[in-house]
Amino acid sequence: MRRRGSLGKGLQAGDHELLNVRRKGAYGRIRYMPGIQKRPEKDETSVKEEEEILIRPVFFVRQTSIIVLLMESIKFLYTNAGRDRTVMDLLEQTVLERNIDILAVTEPNKNRVGTQGWITDKDKDVALRFCNGRMKFNGKGGGNGFAWARCGDIYIYTCYFSPNKEQEAFEIFLRSVDRDIRERTPEKILIVGDFNAKSPTWGAPRADLRGNSIEEWIAEKDLNVVNNGKPTFERNGSVSHIDITLCSRNLRDKITNWDVDEEENLSLHKNILFEVSRSKPRYGILRTGRGFGWHFNTPLLERAKEKLAESFNRIIPSTMTLEEFQRVLTDVCEATFPKRIKRRGRSAKYWWNDEIAEKRRVCIRLRREVTRTAKRRSQEDVDLKREEYKQGRRQLKQMILKAKEKCWKGLLDELNENVWGDAYKIAVKRVGGRQPPQIDERKRMEIAKSLFPEAANITWTKRRCTAEEVPPFGTEELQRAVDKY
Predict the structure, then answer these.
(1) How many CA atoms lie within 13 A of 95 on its CB side?
(2) What's the rounded Cα separation, in Å, for the pair 145 and 160?
(3) Helix (H) or strand (E) holding 229
(4) Counting CB atoms within 10 angstroms of each CB, which of 70, 255, 260, 478 has the fewest?
C-alpha cells in the first residue's frame, strides 16, 4: 500500500484534490487532503482567491489510481419474525433486493439463526447478522433477551421482551440492558427491538406501565426515539406501536430514511428500514478498471478539465452548494468518461421465482384493499376482504415451501448424476469457488484401490463336532459376560 505522501507527486501548490464518487450510499466532500498539499496562507488580499481554490477541482490520476473520500451509509433492516421460517425466507430475499448491510430480528426461527454468521442471545430470542461481506464487527455479546455487536464506533443492540411476562420482570430486563451498556461505555448507541411497550413518544395513543418505564430509562440514558409515529404491528385490523428504535443523541442526525415498509413479509410485525451514516470520512484509492462510477483515464482528463472550466465560468464557484457542485461534476463525468459496468451480485434466493414475486404483490394489494374498505364499507365487507388477504398470505407461504422443496429434490437428482455438482459445493461451503479437479477414470480407480485395498480371500472350512467336544459353560465365562454390561 502506498504511503500518503507519495500520492501527492505532480500536484501544484494551491490545487485542491477532490473527486466525486457516484455510488449508492456514498458521496464526495470538498476537503483538503492532509500530507498531499498545503493550504494556502491567508492574507487580506487573497481571501477571494482562497474561496475559489476551495471549490476548484483537480483530476489527479497516477498509476491508474484515484484518491477518493467516501462517506458511506449503513442500511438496516429490522422485524419480528414470530419464529416463522417463511418469514425468515422473505427477509433473506429482502436483504438481497434492498442491499441491506445489517439485519436485526426478534423472535427468529431458532433453527435458522443457529448457523454460523448470526449473533444471538442465549435463548435465541434476538439475532443480528452482518449481511455485507465487506463490513466486519469488532465485538459482540448478549444477555437474556438482548444481543449486541460493535460496528466501528457504534454499539448496536437488539432487544426483545415477551408480552406474557410481568412488569417486575420487565424492570429487571431493562436494568440488565442498562448494566451491559454501562460496562461498555459506548459513545454511540443504536437500539432496535420489540419491547411490547406503548407510549405516545413513539406513536401509541396512550402509555402503559412498560411504556412509562422505557420513557424514564430514555431520559436517564439521554436517548432519542427515532420512530416517526407509524404503527409497526397489525393484526385483524388493529394496529400497535411496539417496535422501537432508539439512539444516542450524537447519532440522531446520522440516522436517515427511517420508515415502516409496506412490503409483504408474512409477519404481523412490519419491516423497519433506515440508514446510518458513518461518523468519519474514509480515505481510499479507487483503482481504474474496477469498482464503480466511470473509467478515469489520462487521455480524457484534459477534456474533462476544459468542460469543468466552462461550467465554472457560467456559475460563481463561491456561491455553489455541495449539491450544486456534485451535479456539475457528475454532468462533466457523464459527458467525458465512459461508464463503468456495474457487477451485479445475487439479487434473489435460489427458490425465488416470478410466481412468488407476483403473489407477494397481490398480498400487498389485498392488504391495501382491507385498509380502504375499513374506512368506507360495512363490517361484512371488511371481514370479506380480510379473509381474502389471509388466504393470499397462506397461499404465498405454501408457494415458498413448495418452491424450496422442488429445489431440494432437483439438487438430490443432480447428485445422482454429478457428484461434484451443486450438492458438493454446498456441502463444502464452496458455492462459487474453485471447480473440483478433473480426474480420468483410470486415475480414479487407482485412488480408490489405494484408499480401499482388497483384502486377501479367506477360505473357511466347516467341520461337524459332537456335544462331548464342546467345552462346558463355566461361572468365570458367565461373570465375564455380565461384566461387559
Answers:
(1) 20
(2) 5
(3) none
(4) 478
209 and 88 inside one domain: yes
Residue 106 domain flag: yes
* pLDDT digit string, tens, across residues 162-184: 999 999 999 999 999 999 999 98
Question: Residue 42 — very low, low, confident or very high, per pLDDT cuts 50/70/90?
Answer: very low
Residues 134 and 48 in one domain: no
With respect to residue 479, please indicate whether it lies within any of the assigned structural domains: no
Q: Which amino acid is at 182?
A: R
Do 124 and 179 have their domain in common?
Answer: yes
Same domain, 262 and 233: yes
Q: What is the count of structural domains for the chain?
A: 3
Distance of alpha carbon 358 from the chain centroid: 24
Task: Report residue 16 as a C-alpha cell.
Answer: 485542491
C-alpha cell, 187: 459513545
Percentage of residues in the chain having pLDDT higher than 90: 48
Residue 485 lies in a domain: no
CATH number at residue 119: 3.60.10.10
474: pLDDT confidence band, cut at 50, 70 and 90? confident
pLDDT band at 346 (very low <50, low <70, confident <90, very high): low
In a domain, 471, yes or no: no
Whole-number Å distance between alpha carbons of 180 and 141:
9
Asked if residue 150 has pLDDT above 90, the reply is yes
Q: The domain containing residue 399 runs over which residues?
A: 354-427
How do residues 274-313 score in pLDDT, each as one tens digit? 999 875 544 444 343 344 567 767 677 788 888 878 877 7
Q: Compute the average pLDDT of residues 136-152.
A: 93
SS3 category, 339: strand
Alpha-carbon span 313 to 27, nearest angstrom = 24
Compute φ and ψ for 433, nearest 5 degrees: -90, -155
* Domain boundary, last residue among 277, 312, 328: 277
Residue ending a domain, among 385, 406, 427, is 427
C-alpha angle with apex 37: 334 to 308, nearest 5 degrees? Answer: 25
Cα separation, 177 vs 192, in Å, equals 12
